[in-house]
């Protein structure tokens, strides 16, 4: 996989047309993501600015979204598409700080819930408290 992802920042030319670099980059991204998808229908997460890797779509729809909306800023390590920080670090082009790590979205949501509500133990304490005193 080519390590240069500068195409992600060059979507339009001076005439507001999609650049050839961007089209080639999107094609490379789609090939990369489809080769690593675990979806039985061949769908992949859409990294456009509207979907934010939340929605799973067919590759042709992802291409259209990337042309319309652009790719998420800073999504240079394609972690939602099977790429690890380590594989990017080997090329020296990762923009992720060494002290940071990508987290699975489910794990991230669980962590946020625990931070907001004080963890699972507090839930048990609420159940054990009398409703009226």
TrEMBL record:
Comp. bias intervals (Basic and acidic residues): 82-91
Pfam families, per database record: Transpos_assoc (PF13963)
Region (Disordered): 75-109
Residue ranges with Polar residues bias: 96-109
Recorded superkingdom: Eukaryota
Sequence ranges assigned to domain Transposase-associated in this UniProt record: 5-83
Name by which UniProt lists this protein: Transposase-associated domain-containing protein
């Amino acid at each position: 996989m080519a390590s240069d992802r500068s195409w992600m920042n060059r979507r339009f030319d001076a005439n507001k047309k999609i650049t050839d670099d961007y089209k080639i980059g999107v094609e490379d991204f789609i090939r990369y993501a489809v080769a690593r998808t675990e979806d039985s229908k061949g769908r992949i997460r859409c990294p456009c600015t509207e979907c934010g890797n939340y929605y799973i779509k067919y590759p042709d729809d992802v291409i259209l979204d990337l042309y319309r909306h652009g790719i998420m800023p800073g999504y240079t390590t394609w972690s939602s598409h099977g790429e690890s920080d380590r594989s990017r670090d080997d090329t020296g082009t990762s923009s992720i700080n060494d002290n940071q790590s990508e987290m699975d979205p489910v794990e991230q949501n669980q962590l946020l819930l625990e931070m907001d509500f004080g963890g699972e133990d507090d839930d048990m304490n609420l159940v054990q408290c009398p409703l009226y005193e």
